[in-house]
Each structure stands twice: as structure tokens, then as C-alpha cells.
Amino acid sequence: MGEDDTGSVVLVAEDDPELRTLYAARLESRYTVRTAGSGAEALDVADPAVGIVVLDRRLPDGDGLDYLDDLDARTDGAFVAAVTGVDPELEVATVDVDDYLVKPVDGDRLVETVDALDERRHYECDVARYYALASRRAALEAAHDPESLRDDERYVSLVEELDSLRTSITVPTAIVEDPARSAALYRDIAAPE
Fold it and tell me: What positions are modified (4-aspartylphosphate) (predicted)?
């Protein structure tokens, strides 16, 4: 797919050449894909056409999350899926990413994540923020015991923001074309845990 087509542009920043090639191959039938093997390379190929970034946490020139602000500025606010080979630390509660994946990430999960981020680009800001926070919460809950989470102020703050957003979002603004996703979104917003 060429960059003049209607598909979104996805930037894959992954230092492992095999994974980078695999991720690009899985995405290129649906998206225009740019690749980078380091944070510096990612900044070189990032521009406002990029709508989604798949960002490895461990790049040869630093933590991928250290590049978030620069990537955000160069892409005009692309959605970011952080990818890591280790369980997320509690700092994830405060990191401004839209989804968080733990390796190994199979091709189907990668495509589902990028599709969801592409869909979120069309949501109102509160709905997109809600999904980003819910993704971070799910990653933390999968990696940590509930007691340690309850005692962490970053996690508590994340849950409080989710609860606040849940009460402020009106479901009609969040309806999407896929009925299953609409139903899931409605359940997530309308029914507290």
C-alpha cells in the first residue's frame, strides 16, 4: 500500500530485525508501514502522516518511552502501542501510551491492536483516553497482584481517572461500526468493575 492510499501510516520501531520484518509483513496489507531499528531512526522517519507507532521499549539507543514526546511532536499526536519483553512496571500507570503489549506478540494480536488504535483515532478525545487508560490498567493487572496495585498511588490515580471518564462519557459519542465493539464499549463505560 502506498502512502498516497487511504490507509493509515504505521511506524514500527523495533530493534530486532526479524520482529521488525514480521510486524511490518503482518501490517502492510492494511497499512502503509515505515520501520526503524532505533529511537533515532524512528524520529528520522516520523512525520505528521504517521498515525500509529508500534514502539519497542528496549531500543539500542534507549528506552522507547524516552522518545514519546519527540514522536508525539513529529507525528502530531500519533497513537502509540508500547511493546516490551518484560512484565510492565507500575510506572505504566503514568506513561502516556495508548496500548501496552507484552512479548511475544503474535501477528493477530498486533493487527487487532493496530486496528483498534486506528479506530480510536476517530473517537472523541475522552473515549480515546478511556481506552488508553483501560489498556494500561489491564496490562498492570495482568502483571501484578491486586494488593500491590491497591497500595500504589499511580495505579489508584489511573483507576480514579478511569472512573471519572466513565461517568463523563456518553455512549452515543462512542458508537462504532462494529456492533461487538460497540457492545463492549458500552459495557466498559456503563458498568463499573
Answer: 56
Residue 1 lies in a domain: no
Which CATH number characterizes residue 140's domain? Answer: 3.40.50.2300
Q: Which SS3 state, helix, strand or coil, does residue 53 take?
A: strand
- Cell output for 182: 460497540
For residue 44, tell me if it sits in a domain: yes
Whole-prediction pTM value? 0.68
Distance (Å) of CA 150 to CA 22, 93, 134, 141, 147: 38, 12, 16, 10, 5
Kindly report, residue by residue over 148-184, the tens digit of the pLDDT: 888 888 888 888 888 887 777 765 444 444 455 555 5
Q: CB-based contacts of 47: which residues, under 8 Å, 6+ apart? A: 74, 75
CB 12, CB 39: distance < 8 Å: no
